[in-house]
Amino acid sequence: MTEIFEAIKKSAIRIREAIEFDDTGYSEDQNATGDTQLKLDIKSDIIIEEEFRKIPSIKEIVSEEKNDKTPLHVEGHYLIGYDPLDGSSLIDVNLSVGSIFGIYEGGYAGKNLIASVYVVYGPRVELVIATDKVRMYRLNKSDEFVYLKDIVLNEKGKLNAPGSTQMCWEPKHKKMIDDIFADGYRLRYSGGMVPDLHQILLKGGGLFSYPSTSDAPKGKLRLIFEVFPFAFVYEKAGGGSVDGKNRILDLTPEHPHDTSPCFFGSNSEVQRVLKTYE
Ligand code: F6P
Distances in Å between the alpha carbon of 186 and those of 96, 231, 267? Predict the structure, then answer.
């Protein structure tokens, strides 16, 4: 898989440059879930596909920006689900965004995920690779990703990142979030999944939630491109991820763009979610 990680690093360097200097405007197109695509969404997707096409071990890819799977190499082995530029609507206000990759074997189900990678484009560019452990790298002046440290979550954290619109939350969800704040947790939510989850990982723990809501009963975040890869990272960092009742990595989507309610956190907060939703 090293060649896949290297391709992701090359893509990240090219995408970082596009974020810094390209037009931040909208295109005329919509993606599979009906979001109007930024020119940067489309460019990031093209960059990643170009880099992945050079890797013979990749059998197929599926991007958040496309309707269907794209076959790459018949003799390949790995399947990759990715979101080229998550949270891209935050670029015009100059907040951090990210790319997310899930590497699967045999099918796009949680149990088939064997590695995941994400990149944070913030004041600095950081890359996190989860396999048996969760390793963090930072881009230096010579365009090399230098290993910084392993990421390990504490049993219990201090941050709370509650997603979606409060008026659409179920009463039990609202009560859980209010109770968490009453216990002294601090609000940390930018609206970018990658930096928000990265912050919780680096600050020792907490809870990120994107629940079932009255306007989106199946949540907003997509299983293959967003939810599975981060569930894998959180488990390997010593925390967990659930949809309220089930472990996220036990789920199997029917369609590439299926979404799920999701909660990511350190163990104490995940137990709290399971108790609320049981
Ligand atoms: O997937 C899109 C996304 O921008 C995520 O990065 C983020 O966590 C979420 O949507 C924010 O949604 P909301 O504004 O509804 O909380």
Answer: 19, 22, 18
Whole-number pLDDT of residue 27 = 82
Q: Which of 95, 130, 150 is the last residue of a domain?
A: 150
Ligand 1 binding residues, C-beta < 6 A: 86-87, 163-164, 191-193, 220-221, 226
- Mutate which of 220, 225, 263, 264 for ligand 1 pocket (most atoms within 8 A of beta carbon): 220
- Residues 189, 270 share a domain: yes
pLDDT at 40 over 90: yes
Nearest CA to ligand 1 atom 8: 193
What pTM was computed for the model?
A: 0.96
How many domains in the chain?
2
pLDDT value, residue 97: 98
Work out which ligand 1 atom sits closest to the CA atom of 98: 6
Question: In angstroms, rounded to a whole number, what is the distance separating the alpha carbons of residues 274 and 48?
Answer: 37
CATH number of 65's domain: 3.30.540.10
Q: How far away, in angstroms, is 142 Cα from ligand 1 center?
A: 32
Residue 36's CB is within 10 A of a number of other CB atoms, namely 12
Count of other CB atoms within 10 angstroms of residue 225: 25
Q: Which domain holds residue 252?
A: 159-277
The CATH number of the domain holding residue 211 is 3.40.190.80
CA of 190 to the centre of ligand 1 (A): 9
Gap from CA of 26 to ligand 1 centroid (Å): 18
What is the average per-residue pLDDT within 34-54? 93
Contact 19, 138 (CB under 8 A): no
